[in-house]
Design a protein that fits this description.
Keywords: Hydrolase. Residues 33-205 form the ThuA-like domain. The chain is α/β, with parallel strands linked by helices. The protein has one domain (4-206): 3-Layer(aba) Sandwich (Rossmann fold). 21% of the residues lie in helices and 33% in strands. It has a nine-stranded mixed β-sheet. A two-stranded antiparallel sheet has the order 5-8. The longest helix is centred in the C-terminal third of the chain and has 14 residues, at 192-205.
Length: 212
């Protein structure tokens, strides 16, 4: 049987902070038993005619200074609402500059403080099963949350005595969306907790049956 297909989008040529090099290999290894991962920096692949053949899309896009076109925006919305799975990883939060995609993802990125060791608290869900609380050096992202999305928080990090959402999931139309904040650079993806979260997020978002 052919393996399911995943599209990983990022930036190889002009990344400002988060190159896809190295991250592509880590994610391909993590998902190897589940999905064949195709990696690309071509934003045009977000159009629905390209996305339709994939079971899962992982957005690691570095688009802080660029705009996603209306066709690419519509493609991603159509893909997920029609039943596709989407994982937005770390810098993929740059997609939330577009209002429609902020609503799809469930929150709008509004800055981060300095890279530092963070304590992550894990909340109960199929995606987090078997993952214990962990520590990882990361950029603490902050979000403005969309009141219309019924999201389930998966991870929180501690900052100045508060617990701030660092990962969540929700359904969107017939599809499923997961946001994971950890993933600043290639070493982040070597952490066993993040590897397990990505594997289980892919299983959940792409609706892959779990075999024991």
């Amino acid at each position: 049987m052919d393996k399911r297909k995943c599209l990983l989008l990022g930036d190889y040529t002009h990344p400002r902070f988060h190159p896809l090099q190295g991250v592509d290999q880590q994610i391909s290894e993590i998902l190897n038993d589940l999905l064949t991962v195709q990696c690309s920096e071509n934003k045009k692949l977000m159009r629905i005619e390209h996305l339709a053949s994939y079971d899962l899309c992982i957005a690691y896009n570095e688009l802080w200074n660029e705009t996603v076109s209306p066709q690419q925006t519509a493609g991603l919305l159509s893909y997920v609402s029609g039943g596709g799975g989407l994982i937005v990883l770390h810098t993929g939060a740059s997609l939330t500059k577009r209002n429609e995609l902020a609503q799809l993802i469930g929150g709008r990125f509004n800055g981060h403080t300095a890279y530092e060791p963070l304590n992550f608290k894990v909340l109960e869900h199929d995606i987090t099963e078997g993952v214990e609380d962990f520590q990882l050096d990361e950029e603490p992202y902050h979000f403005e949350f969309d009141p219309f999305t019924e999201r389930t928080i998966l991870l929180q990090y501690e900052s100045e005595g508060q617990w701030i959402p660092a990962a969540w999931c929700h359904s969107y139309g017939l599809g499923r969306v997961v946001f994971l904040m950890p993933g600043h650079h290639e070493p982040s993806f070597r952490h066993p907790a993040l590897r397990k979260l990505i594997l289980q997020a892919a299983t959940w978002a792409a609706r892959i049956p779990v075999t024991n």
